[in-house]
User: Which sequence fits this backbone?
């Protein structure tokens, strides 16, 4: 009445399982199966434990870098560097605008003076009139060039907007990392700190990280 | 003509101011705000003839400012020119639906700014004449 497991399947199974499957003792079969399943579960839990520990270790290293000030490639510093670039580029653009605003009235005054000279003498043979005309042309082209220079400063706004977007992106990466640190900290044996997930300042970030010994 | 220039970048406010002066508007009648909230406060306390605003700003964006202006009986007729780096279809449509009077995409030239301003004033004059 006992049916043997087919040869094809039988060959792939460990000998003790093959023996059990062919056994007529139902209780022994169940017990053996139970032991086997428990062994499998333990393997799985051990693997999960190792995975959690590895993850925690990786995040811990990342968190350490995150909180470490003065390292050029740390996330907090990257954000600060971008802020500095934004400020420096704004200053540079304002200097150019200062220059344009200072020179524009001078160009205008030169054009007016030339017009006054030309009101006196308009002869093509008079060197004063020739010079006055040249001055007028120069004033006009200066004015045009200054306008172009003013407009060209809009690069600061366009590049600055992109920089701001990158800063926002870095902030979101930073808070995701901190959230990960919080979660793995809780996983690795402690309770999750009551701190809200959203971290807004460097101080809060440092405080949160210090709760995990970073 | 009293104009309010709204942009979170001080360089851009200055550039727009420079261009407006070059186009013949009086420098002393141009005022500046660095976001929509401050602009709205200024618009409520002083009377302006036109608003030139950026889109992307903290606290209150340009489109929110435009909607706030159109929602307020005292301000709803104010011409609003949008000067922005945002140039995707949806945003332009959103601005048009909110009742923008003109839309200039950055980077722009003085000629473009003049064209858009002229168009705004032409339309306003035509509306004024037909009303």
Assistant:
């Amino acid at each position: 009445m006992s049916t043997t497991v087919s040869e094809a399947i039988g060959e792939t199974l460990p000998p003790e399982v093959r023996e059990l499957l062919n056994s007529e003792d139902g209780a022994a079969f169940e017990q053996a199966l139970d032991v086997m399943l428990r062994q499998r579960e333990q393997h799985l839990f051990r693997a999960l434990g190792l995975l959690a520990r590895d993850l925690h270790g990786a995040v811990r290293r990342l968190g350490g870098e995150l909180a470490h000030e003065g390292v050029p490639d740390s996330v907090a510093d990257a954000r600060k560097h971008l802020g500095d670039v934004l400020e420096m580029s704004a200053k540079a653009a304002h200097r150019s605008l200062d220059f344009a605003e200072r020179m524009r009235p001078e160009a205008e005054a030169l054009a007016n003076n030339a017009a006054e000279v030309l009101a006196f003498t308009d002869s093509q043979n008079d060197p004063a009139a020739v010079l006055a005309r040249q001055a007028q042309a120069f004033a006009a082209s200066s004015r045009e060039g200054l306008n172009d220079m003013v407009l060209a400063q809009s690069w600061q706004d366009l590049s600055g907007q992109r920089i701001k977007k990158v800063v926002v992106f870095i902030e979101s990466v930073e808070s995701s990392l901190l959230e990960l640190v919080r979660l793995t900290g809780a996983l690795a044996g402690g309770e999750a700190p009551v701190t809200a997930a959203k971290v807004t300042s460097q101080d809060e970030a440092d405080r949160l990280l210090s709760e995990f010994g970073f | 003509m009293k104009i309010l220039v709204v942009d979170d970048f001080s360089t851009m406010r200055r550039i727009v101011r420079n261009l407006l002066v070059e186009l013949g508007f009086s420098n002393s009648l141009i005022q500046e705000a660095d976001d929509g909230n401050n602009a709205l406060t200024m618009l409520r306390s002083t009377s302006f003839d036109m608003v030139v605003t950026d889109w992307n700003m903290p606290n209150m964006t340009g489109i929110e400012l435009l909607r706030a202006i159109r929602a307020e009986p005292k301000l709803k007729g104010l011409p609003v020119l949008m000067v922005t780096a945002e140039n995707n279809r949806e945003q332009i449509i959103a601005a048009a639906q909110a009742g923008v009077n003109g839309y200039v995409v950055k980077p722009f030239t003085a000629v473009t700014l003049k064209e858009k301003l002229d168009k705004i004033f032409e339309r306003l004059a035509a509306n004024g004449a037909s009303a």
Residues 26 and 160 of chain A are 76 Å apart (CA to CA).
